[in-house]
Amino acid sequence: MTGGHGAAHAGPRTPDRGSVTVLAGVAVAILVVVASTVVLLAAATGARQRAERAADLAALAGAAALVGGADRACQAAVRVAVANDARVESCRARGLDLLVETAVPLQLGPVGGTAVGRARAGPAVAVGSLPPDGSSSADP
After folding, report:
1. 131 inside domain
2. CB contact set of 100 (below 8 Å; sequence gap of 6+)
3. What is the pLDDT of residues 7-35, one digit of tens each?
4. Which of 117, 47, 45 is nearest to 88 (CA)?
């Protein structure tokens, strides 16, 4: 019989033995953290875009109904926001414009939050009717 009790080792034990396993574990942990961060940022960005889209659509719908008064305009804005899975945080008329702020819930695993979108809609101003500086009386 050849090879005795220590034949499984291909050489003397060194302090570096197993360091590749530790480095691989650290690399995997870093990859998991980076991937998780990317997923969370993508979810937050998507929620913000949904909130902005809902605010845009709600403001447009409300501005179209603004001739019936601010209450009617905000009711129209709320209907459109709810149809887009958002809630209206604020709705107010300022002159001929309607300002709408919407919120969309954001669930990131055990952590929650809210994404907010803001929009302003009102009548279009004819280009020829603008003063030379480009401002309009409806601008804030």
Report:
1. no
2. 55, 58, 59, 62, 77, 81, 88, 90, 91, 118, 119, 120, 121
3. 555 666 667 777 888 899 999 999 999 99
4. 117
Range of the domain at 70: 27-123
Q: SS3 of 116, please?
A: strand
* 129 located within any domain: no
Domain count, the chain: 1
What's the rounded Cα separation, in Å, for the pair 36 and 93?
Answer: 41
* Buried b or exposed e, range 8-25, using 16+ CB within 10 angstroms: eeeeeeeeeeeeeeeeee
The tens digit of pLDDT for each residue in 46-92 reads: 999 999 999 999 999 999 999 899 999 999 999 999 999 999 999 99
Q: Which amino acid is at 138?
A: A
- Name beta bridge partners: 104: 115
- 3-state class of 48 per DSSP? helix
